[in-house]
Fold each of these.
Amino acid sequence: MSTRGGTRWRTFVQTETGSAVLLLVAVVAALLWANIDLHSYDAVWQAHFTVGFDTRHLSLTVHEWINAGLMSLFFFVVGLEARREFDMGELRDRRWVLLSAVAGLGSMVVPAVIYVAINAGHDSVHGWGTAMSTDTAFALGILAVLGRRLPASLRALMLSISVVDDVVALLVIAVFYSDEIHLPALLVALGALLAVVVVLRLADAGRGLFCALLAVVVWVALHEAGVDPVVTGLAVGALVIAYPAPRGDLERASRLFRLFREQPTPELQRSAARGLASAISPNERLEQRFLPWVSFGIVPLFALANAGIELSAERLADAFTSPVTLGILCGCVVGKIVGVVGSMAGAQLLSGRRLRPNVGWGSVTAAGSIAGAAFTVSLLIAAIAFEGEELNQARIGIIATLIGSFAVSWAVSGVIGFLPAARRTRALLGTSEPLTDLGVAVDERHDHVRGPADAAVTLVEYGDFECPYCGQAEGVVRDLLGSETDVRYVWRHLPLTDVHPNAQAAAEASEAAARQGRFWDMHDLLMGRQDELGERDLLRHARELGLDTEAFREDLARRRGARRVAEDVDSADLSGVSGTPTFFVNGRRHRGAFDIDALKRAVEQARRRALAGG
């Protein structure tokens, strides 16, 4: 495979689209296998596998080990992402936590009610839990396929709903679809979970051997208690905190790396590796470690083990006239839309508009249609609630929701696309004020600002004159300012003195030029000559710009710009900024690439939101 081809493949598998496609491939493979040789399909998954010895052992089928064991890791990753959203993402706004909870509950209650209504009078009514859950992987995959039809901010809404969905679904499994509860074993599980909390408080989760052992104790105890042990993963994942990389930890990591650079010994290599890892929050480290295995191993294996159904025209005809299949399909595809839109509208009305979505109602409707994709948790509940032909009918209904959800989502986004531009923007982005990440607001009298004061979009960059990535981003910013007329650009200093020894002096030199009204001239010159930031270089730059060199020299000697630079650094700390370049678009932190296309998309969305709000 060529280098370019290998890069494209890695990029593909790292996206939600890649995960969803692989999951879909596993579903198709399971269907083909079951319809070619059902006997071998059942034989593989029903084979027993025993762990332990003598009377102290656990014997489960391969199917049960996957559903109850490996899927605990899937929910562990879900718990990690939920905690990160709570600590660093949209859920920092506790009103959004409440609204997400309302929307998540609405998106589950309404489908369950529809399922019960269709199955009333049948024994299958007890399977109402199969119609409740949204599959996060497929939902994000559908969102990725729809691409620019829907705003990027919709992903946060989908994740928030999915988090609530998974929590409630696992509680439903534990309470309604578990065997008789054995209290002593349940108390052991709760005690081990409390011990996990203590260990996480006392020790770095990167040294998580104790946490892993305690999680196994929780899992076994819940299994013995008669509670589905998959809840273990979600509970443990939600306990692991997330936070931006502190600048002090990054500086320590860079010092360790420099030591290794000077003396490349195995001991210093291990020390540098530990230092680099410890600069990232335990939450992000663990997700980085487990996510590839979960997305591209465990979840497709789960699909392969659960989606195998022997299909025939007669069986499909029976399924689509059965209350089980129809209850799941109608509950998910129709009920999710009604539940999400209805619950959010009700919350907004009852709260006097204090609780309202961070996107437009068109996007909320699209979120409801995307949420209709049921798979992972629904299959888990179906395997517990049904047997025989009813289980096959449930599986057909669950797989059918994937097609139905995608079709309805495509139709909803298509209808929104036909609206006039102003109405389409309002339908997608809404009018609510977005959560602001920038700790210190832009002040025209204090900040260094380029562009019109009444611009619809403000782009703030925390930068370092010696940072090569800031140098690369400078060309992107110039292109952006050259092509946009309603964007203003703000530069704030963040000299990374631990890796860029001349950055502080360069920042103070730009402030010395600012005292003579020439900040942007010096800024542009320094960004273009990042390898010429020594004291003599700075004086030469001042002469080249025609500055009063004696005043410039004295300002540098007395470090008159140091306080101004320190104020920017303090504002960076308040905004959780630890590296350069870091961009904020209308107060929201821009995550990801800073190429011209990525920044243009972020600026365009911010402009559309600002105009819709106006």
Amino acid sequence: MGRLAFLAHSENENTRHRGALRATTGWRIRIGTVAATAAMVSAGIVLGAGPAAAAPAAIKLTSVSCPNEIVQGQLSGCVTELQNLLNAHGAGLVVDGQFGPSTLYAVREYQAATAIAVDGRVGPATKSKLYATGGSAPAPVNLQSSSCPANVVQGDKGGCVSELQRLLRHHGYAVDVDGDFGAGTASAVRGFQSSHGLTADGQVGTNTKRALYDTDESPSTSVDLRSASCPANIVEGESGGCVATLQALLNGKGQQLAVDGEFGPATLSAVKAFQSASGLIADGQVGPNTKAALYANIGGGGGNGAPAPINLNSASCPNEIVQGQRSGCVTELQSLLNHHGADLAVDGDFGALTDSAVRDFQSEKGLSVDGHVGPNTKAALYGAVTPPSSPPPGGGYGKILDVAAAEAGTVEGSARANSYGSSVGLSLSTSDYAWCATFVSWVAKQTGATSYRNSYVSGWVNQARAGNYHLSVTTDPQPGDIVAFDWDGGSDFTGGNEHIGIVRTVSGSSLTTVEGNTSNPNGGSDGVYVKSRGTNNGYDVVFIRVR
């Protein structure tokens, strides 16, 4: 029971019991504790639980009837729904609609397991993840497989619909992954079809399926609206990463926008609605007050009020991160420690529990146990998060294919895939942005073949066309070359409908590639996979030679 009590403590409380527990049972005790706790909770014997009263009727967490954040102490149908979802993920809770200590524990365990800020608060990020990770929804089935009908339509249920919903979410549509093709999914399908020049009939046939899988790049949502990278006032007519971030944040507040980086009428309407609901002047201009309101009480990406994460190896972080500091470097540190099994609140504050977790990690990895996060600890935090070892850097263009091919099978959202972002200064989950060009950048960094790095396909194409960074365009593709695809045609590589990978084999107009942020040929999660492509399949292709 000491472990449960610990989880309810804040960062500055006494850590003696935690240290004693780990001294005898080891760093990975959390797994065994979860199972034991789940059994006790189910039996009604945790924390003096008595006979359960009838639970309030479940209410969908994303409905207007539920608060933006569901927290300990609440009793409602929203909590009933939360407990049902947590149980679908193996929590073993008594479903009573009461957000007590056992529910708090289960929330924190779920957040740690899915790399969400471990704050015990069920905000937009946790709600979205609970639905997106499926719970009791049917397992996704590749839409292009023989297991799915030629046309997936409203009223259908099953794994094909789960996959459709997962893909729609990847494109920025706020649908629940429940395997049930209802009105909300139909509306999202029509919106997707309209934005991609398809017949907006709500039926998911051959062309819609292809577009769902082929649209592998979208505007990055990693830009902080409050940074100098974005205008002081973001207004209708603008486009790019700042607008994409704005749209993603609005969706987190209940809107249903396509995250396309274009500030059009729909985005303007959503901004005004958000401003009105937040007590701001509804002028549609996203200035300092609107930005602050958008970032207020975000349930993930750094926790409730935590500084935005900063890569530990960047110049913005000190050589040694130590107890007492509060910064985005600490936010990043806590997130990494949670990837390794810690149960920290990600608040950006390096207190006693973070210090204890650092020391536990250092001990487990055979490092000097001093609680100081210096170069060796930083390297271990990033390196050990990525289980299969990387091919050694170096070797130039001749090693590009070897390095890329060694990553085949890496799944999107895994710690391995997330580490690719370090090549372009990103510390985001690959589940949250289009990362095909980031993967190419990572391969380039591993080999040293070129110093160019960019998370956009257009950047790679433009530099190759200009002959910069030892890049050039070639019409004689060879294994190890880079290949860029413009699914819309025109070879302008604009509009967020592009993709990029590494050439594996070439045979006439056919080729195979190694690609990141691409669909699994066998169904399941996106990741790094070998794909079959061509130069006469209705899309434009540019081959890039690295020399």
